[in-house]
Amino acid sequence: MAEALDQPSEARERLRQHFLGHEPSEQTSQWDALWKAGDFLPWDRGGPNPALIDILNDRRDLIGDPEIDAAQDSDSQKRKRALVPGCGKGYDVLLLASFGYDAVGLDVSESALEVCRKYAASDEIAGKYPVRDPALGKGDVKFVLGDFFKDNWVDEANEDWAVGNWDLIYDYTFLSALPPSLRPAWSGRMSDLLAANGILICLEFPTYKPPSTGGPPWALPPTVYLQHLSRPGEKIEYDEEGYVVESDKTNQMALKRIAHWQPERTHDVGKGTDWVSVWKHQQ
């Protein structure tokens, strides 16, 4: 599911038709079929989004360092833990590990994970993910099969990496791959998984589409992120045209948006329309 969904209208319509008429419970098999066939992967951009690279390099003021603060360090944990749901071919997972995070890529498609494991073990990645901090070195990398909304992947990821223990979560094209009916569950799960001092990074895409065009990728203007993450787990009202109805309400699970900007660099498909939002729990 993961990287960018850069496709002309013909390919976008082909992708939409592939999912048309299938219930949310049938999404897993539909994604797996695309990965298994391997000849139509319009979301795959061949590498991580430049916006994420720039965030990891330049915005430590927001996201902190990949190493646990010495005052909080323990014998069992030195690095922060990062989760990439809908990891696709694994570009973002390898990038986060190169910055020093212990990174887990999660996907519901076994075929996708077969592809990303082969990629991670191939000569193709030589020089693409260099160690950013020689003193810290690379973090561990795991690719795990599982449903983001369930705990069926917890043991493989390591039990203490599950609910409430993720220091960084990155969402790019994961939410846009989900039917809108799953957005309350998405926001609730993000709030549950994120550590007390953790950071959620959302690269908001596609912000430019009218909701009437359907998906995937489903239209995601910034207000969708703001309304759902302000009230995780709650059903949010939409108008007749499919646009979210804005409200100032929050709930006890709310995540607070601490930064929001348009990145200088991103994949071509999102230039001029992508946004970055950074979130944390309300203290």
TrEMBL record:
CDD domains (alphabetical): AdoMet_MTases
Supply the InterPro entries for this chain. Answer: SAM-dependent_MTases_sf, TPMT
Q: Which GO BP terms, alphabetically? A: methylation
Highest taxon in the source lineage: Eukaryota
Which parts form a coiled-coil structure per UniProt?
none
Show the GO MF annotations.
Answer: S-adenosylmethionine-dependent methyltransferase activity
Which keywords does UniProt give here?
Methyltransferase, Phosphoprotein, S-adenosyl-L-methionine, Transferase
Q: Which PANTHER family match?
A: PTHR32183, THIOL METHYLTRANSFERASE 2-RELATED
- Protein name as it appears in the record: S-adenosyl-L-methionine-dependent methyltransferase
Q: Which organism is it from?
A: Patellaria atrata CBS 101060
Q: Name the lineage.
A: Eukaryota, Fungi, Dikarya, Ascomycota, Pezizomycotina
